[in-house]
Design goal:
The complex is a heterodimer of chains A (214) and B (188). Chain A is 77% helix and 0% strand. Chain A has helices at 3-16, 23-45, 52-55, 59-82, 89-92, 97-113, 116-124, 128-150, 158-177, 186-211. In chain A, helix 4 (59-82) runs antiparallel to helix 6 (97-113), helix 4 packs antiparallel against helix 9 (158-177) and helix 8 (128-150) packs across helix 9. Chain B has 188 residues and is an all-alpha fold. The N and C termini of chain B lie far apart (43 Å). The chains are: A mainly alpha (214), B mainly alpha (188). The A-B interface holds A 1-23, 83-86, 152-154, 156, 213-214 and B 20-25, 28-29, 32-33, 36, 58, 61-62, 65-67, 69-76, 79, 83-84, 87-88, 91, 123-125, 127, 129, 132-133, 144, 147-149, 151, 153-154, 165, 168-169, 172-173, 176, 180-181, 184.
Chain lengths: 214, 188
């Protein structure tokens, strides 16, 4: 094909669809859609814990919910930055330190304020494996939606972008699941939630490495 | 002096891209036509530095133009456009050198010192058009061929294939996206 023929074709395509929507539009739709579908799944299968109102007035529950929400926002922000080809990966990732440090601070505070004898039972919690599996189930569809939206981006590292998409989806699933879960200790969150979100991030790498290539 | 010229050029390119985003096709064509010779030179230099001949330069130029087109939503209208174009060219060049089994230091730092002087290379991709189009299927191939090689308008293509202009739009756009993926796989 000659280059001028290609240019003609690109101009023809542009003429039919000038000003394509920025990546953030698609990502916003993906987050809302993922949230809606996973929330529906959540209310069918799990449901909000009965003592939600009193839980909301405890710092542990608020932190569990809030930190996951912060992760969603940070990951979305990083994903948007990474979607530009001029962004180098590492500098853009810094925002992810916010939820990580917040959790770390909560863990330290918990370790300092509760007796050492209670650490193990708080960390193991009740039915951690179920929590882990639930977060994964609530994150899979958001991950697909996020990857689909991020395909419009141009990341220098598709794998890195996939990892961030996984964190975003995992954070979304965890935020929803947190409303059911009665294990509020930061120790529990730092183990089971982080494991689930980490696994989602690895899924994200595996999918993104292929799906986000351009 | 040189830097001034580079800045002026960036301003013009950015202006064309903004106009294009607002629906100005002529500005868009101007931009792509201005980018092509610069890309040709940059890619050719990248290839020479890594010990390749100029045989595949036009392939990478075309892949880069295609990527610029498909990823144009990732350029922020407030930013300079040259670094964005450079980043895309770099990505495509690295990708193509990797496919050829090389891991290379990338010599494109900036377009700043590159001036769009013409260099004598074939404007024709070394891949023949039919082979390239063979990565597309059915309707997409028909529509892309009609518009790119036969130079039809969307209206004419719609009439020829008895489909709506909307369907032409979708087939063309999906066809171009598939072409970007197909280019990658053809060389593997």
């Amino acid at each position: 094909m000659r280059t001028d023929e290609l240019i003609n074709t690109l101009v023809a395509d542009h003429a039919m669809q000038p000003g394509p929507k920025p990546v953030r539009h698609g990502l916003a739709v993906a987050i809302i859609a993922g949230l809606a579908i996973s929330s529906a799944l959540f209310s069918l299968m799990l449901g909000v814990r009965p003592d939600i109102l009193s839980a909301l007035s405890t710092w542990r529950f608020d932190l569990k919910l809030g930190d996951n929400l912060v992760l969603v926002i940070a990951a979305a922000w990083v994903a948007l930055r990474l979607s530009s080809p001029t962004t180098t990966s590492l500098s853009a990732m810094r925002a992810l330190l916010v939820p990580a440090l917040l959790l770390l601070a909560a863990v330290v505070y918990e370790l300092v304020t509760i007796p050492a004898s209670a650490w193990a039972s708080r960390a193991v919690g009740v039915n951690g494996v179920m929590c882990f599996a639930s977060i994964i189930s609530l994150s899979v569809l958001p991950l697909m939606a996020a990857i689909y939206a991020l395909r419009r981006g141009a990341p220098t590292s598709p794998a890195m972008m996939g990892a961030v998409g996984g964190l975003l989806a995992g954070g979304l699933g965890a935020t929803i699941f947190a409303m059911h879960c009665t294990n509020d200790s930061p120790l529990f969150v730092a183990i089971w939630y982080v494991l689930a979100i980490g696994l989602m991030s690895m899924f994200g790498v595996a999918v993104g490495r292929h799906a986000l290539r351009w | 002096m040189e830097q001034q010229r580079a800045r002026d050029r960036d301003r013009i390119w950015a202006e064309w891209m903004r106009a294009a985003n607002a629906g100005d096709d002529i500005a868009y064509r101007r931009l792509l036509e201005a980018l092509a010779p610069v890309l040709r030179q940059v890619v050719s230099r990248g290839f020479t530095c890594s010990g390749f001949g100029n045989c595949d330069v036009e392939d990478i130029v075309q892949e880069t133009l295609l990527a610029i087109h498909l990823k144009r939503q990732t350029w922020n209208e407030r930013d300079a456009i040259t670094p964005w174009v450079t980043a895309i060219a770099r990505h495509k060049l690295i990708d193509s050198l990797r496919r050829r089994g090389r891991r290379v230091e990338m010599p494109i730092d900036d377009f700043l010192d590159v001036l769009p002087t013409e260099i004598p290379t074939e404007r024709l991709s070394s891949r023949d058009a039919e082979r390239l189009l063979s990565v597309l299927s059915g309707r997409q191939r028909d529509v892309v061929r009609a518009i790119s090689i036969e130079g039809m308008s969307a209206r004419e293509a719609a009439d020829r294939f008895r489909i709506s202009e909307g369907a032409v739009r979708v087939a063309l756009h999906r066809g171009l996206s598939a072409l970007a993926v197909g280019c990658r796989d053809l060389d593997q």
